[in-house]
Structure formats: C-alpha cells, structure tokens
Amino acid sequence: MTALFALATSLLWGLADFGGSLLTRRIPALTVVVVSQAVAVVVLGSVVAATGAWSEFGPQLWFAVAAGVVGPVAMLSFYKALALGPMGVVSPLGSLGVVVPVGVGLTLGERPGLPQFAGIAVAVAGVVLAGGPELRGAPVQRRTVTLTLVAAVGFGAVMSLISEASTDVTGLFLALFVQRVANVAVGGAALCVSSRRGVPALPEGGGAQLILWSLPALAFVGLADVAANGTYSLAAHSGPVTVAAVLASLYPVITALAARGFLKERLRAVQAAGAGLALAGTVLLATG
Known about the structure:
Blueprint: H1 2-23, H2 29-51, H3 61-84, H4 87-94, H5 99-107, H6 114-130, H7 142-163, H8 169-196, H9 207-213, H10 215-238, H11 241-248, H12 251-262, H13 269-287
C-alpha cells in the first residue's frame, strides 16, 4: 500500500505541475497559486463540513499550518528560479527536496534493507536525470541556485510536515483544509504586495475573463495537489517514510512524460535514461 499511495502521489503531483506550467504561460504564477488553492479551500471546506472532521481539531494541526506557510514560499522560489535560470539546472536541483523526508525517516530510526537502499539511490538518480540536467553552457547565477535549493528544501519540508498533521483519514481532511487556508493567506498577502509594487495580478489581454475561462484547469491543479498531499500522508503512515518519499518524488518523470504525450515534446537522451532509472528504482523499492 505504501508503494501504491506514493506512486499515486507522484502521478498527481506530476500532472499538477504540468497543468500549472501551462497555466503560467498565460496567467501570472502567483495568481495561479492563489486561485487554484482557493478552489481547493472551498472543496475541502465542504468535505470537512460533511464528514464532521472538525472533531479532529488538535495541536497536530500546527504541522498543517507550517506546511501551508512553507508551500507557497517554495513554489514562488521555484518559479523565480525558472525565470532566472535554465530548466535543465533548476528542475534537477529542485527534485533534491526528497533528501529532507528521507533524512527525517533515517533520523527516526528507519533502516531500509539493502535492495531498498539501492532502489533509493537509483530512483533519486533517475529523478535528477529526468529533469534534463545541463552540464554545459553559461555559468548559472548564484541567486538561481539559492532560490532552487530553497524551493527544494521547502518541497521536502511540506512532505514531512503534512505526514505529521493527522493520524486518520478524517483528520487528514481537516489537516489538508488548514494547510490550504494557510496557502491562500500567504499567497494572497504576497499577491497584494506584488500588486502594490506594480506587478500585474491579472493576465494581459484577457484579465478576469481569462481567469474565469481557465477556472476548470485551475481547479484541477489545486485539487490534484491536494489529493497528492493526501495520498502521500497515507503512504507515509502505511510504511517506511524513506520509501514513500522517494516514490512520491518521481513526479518530474510524470511531468516530462505528460509534456511528451500532450505537447509532443521530445525527451532528451538524458531524460529517457532518467525515466528508465526511476522505473528500475521503483521496482527495487516496491519489492525490497
């Protein structure tokens, strides 16, 4: 079940990232984050009300609040890094966030067997290569690397925090709702600040109408991200965090394959090799 939930997480995160990247071509990235998460707040609020999840209120929700604060910071750092530097550098570095939950698992005493350690090494290498690392070319700005590493640590921290925010499915609904409320609060504040500095919050040429027409896609991105956080939490509670974190971090492979399937983008040789390594690592982790 750990492998199943974790692989579902990678699928959902990969599709959410693919959808988000398409939307940010027409809509400001910060607006995409805020609107997509606001839709998730509405849906999750309805689920919490229908299931009576308010009864699970407790101090563990501070982990959800922390995840909700860290998430937008990580996402915005990642988008800024993509704007400053080549994707072939930013994407592989961003995927290294898996080190955080794996490190937490090892610190808490998890000791995977030899096949699983091998699977972790192979899968992480595959994820990095799937991002199409650029080993040649002009030097990358230090700010780009710093922003990418901030994003990576943030992504990994969210994985660790959300897994601690609940102990059962009902509590998970409430934790995800709280996380999304914090996401919207932090993202909304950032959007207000950027608007006051003259950065447009609405896309040029379409404005609010384009946002309205894009609402189904924005809803998909927000809800897929929510579902991914939920399945990751279930994966982390049903088995070793070290295994769950690595399998859940295969999402760059999904994003690359989605671009190949929907946009007809050709995979570079290094990306194809990375996808193969990621698959091999998945088999080792699932059967180890």
